[in-house]
Amino acid sequence: MDIPSPIPRPWDLTRVVLGVLTIGGLALASFWVLRPFLLAGIWATMIVVSTWPTLRAVQARLWGKRSLAVVIMTVVMLVIIAAPLATAVIGVAERSDDIVTWSRSFITYVLAGPPEWVARLPLLGGKLAERWQAIAVASSEELTTQAAPYVRDVARWVLGQVGTVGTLLIEILLTVIIAIILYANGEAAAAGVVAFARRLSGPAGERAAVLSARAIRAVALGIVVTALVQSVIGGIGLAITGVPYPLLLSSVMFLLGIAQIGPFPVLLGAVIWAYWANGTFWGTLMLLCALVTGSLDNVLRPILIRRGADLPLLLIFAGVLGGLLAFGLIGLFVGPVVLSVTYTLLEEWVGQGPPRSDDGASAEATVDLPGAAGRST
Questions:
Q1: Helix, strand, or coil (residue 85)
Q2: In the chain, N or C: fewer CB atoms in 10 Å?
């Protein structure tokens, strides 16, 4: 007796559309609920992924106690990352009145002509002395007209920083809390991400997830460590040459290094102040320290990034700069991850193409001009 085959169900377009809308609505609602914690969660994820090998090493030295390792890593995170950022923004906010007052008083300050040693400086001495002399002979009205837009920008920026101090402290607190949770349950979170990537794209998705972690670690090594080294060396130079507020300025240099601006704005002002207030010797010493600190960005960062991930260095730099322009500060880590995942999936897709046969290659190599076949026969 033949068993009739089941009648295939017709494709229900309404059911498919409603299912997609339901899933999309749930995803959108979940994103909306988690939106206040999204930025802190991304920062915590970047920090934990970057420092996970260090956590494992610390745990191995502490008799396998994960709780002790989490405590040590949290303290290190607060000292190295959270404290400099909070110190820089809060310090600028607390001195906002002094910054605005100093900016306005500087306009009416009567500047003397340049000393003779300025013109003897190598490379830029002549142009610097000429520009200095032009500012010295200018009237206060001219200086006020030229500098008024910059003073307004400084005042607006300072007031903006005052308004975001509370938000910054909350973000730092949330980042620390989420990082502690991820440190304690990192294996489960990593397994979930890898399982999702494998379900989404098979073995290529799993490799993309692993490569994303390597890209995050590479960027953290290249950017954060370089900014930390530059701020430490620059801060030592500030303290030795007697520049005021060396701790605050070191924190600002660290923040500028993270933002890919570099420590040069702070170091340039420190060099000018040292020449002005302490004389040629201390100014030259601060200038040498500034040159050494600034050159580390071009030497140390590529080496650290290359050690962290086996990816084209141009790809990492494009991700860092493009992510910074597209997403802000968090884009420093998001940009390289997006490009590295795209690069990996594209490379996997190209590699799975049909191999090139020898017959096709030889036939392509013997292609001649039109009419050649007729002449050969």
A1: helix
A2: N
Q: Of 246, 252, 242, which Cα lies nearest the Cα of 285? A: 242
With residue 144 as reference, give the H or E element that holds it.
helix 140-184
242 near 278, Cβ under 8 Å?
A: yes
- Closest to 181 (Cα-Cα) out of 62, 45, 33: 45
Q: How far apart are CA 84 and CA 81, in angstroms?
A: 6
Q: Each residue of 324-377: pLDDT tens digit?
A: 777 766 676 677 777 877 776 777 777 776 766 555 444 444 444 444 444 444
In whole angstroms, give the CA distance from residue 302 to residue 226: 10
pTM: 0.64
- C-alpha dihedral sign at 221, 226, 170, 68: positive
Burial 297-315 (b: 16+ CB within 10 A, else e): beebbeebbbebbebeeeb
Name the 3-class secondary structure at 147.
helix
Q: Parse the chain into domains and list their residue ranges.
A: 39-184, 201-351
CB–CB of 257/232 below 8 Å?
Answer: no
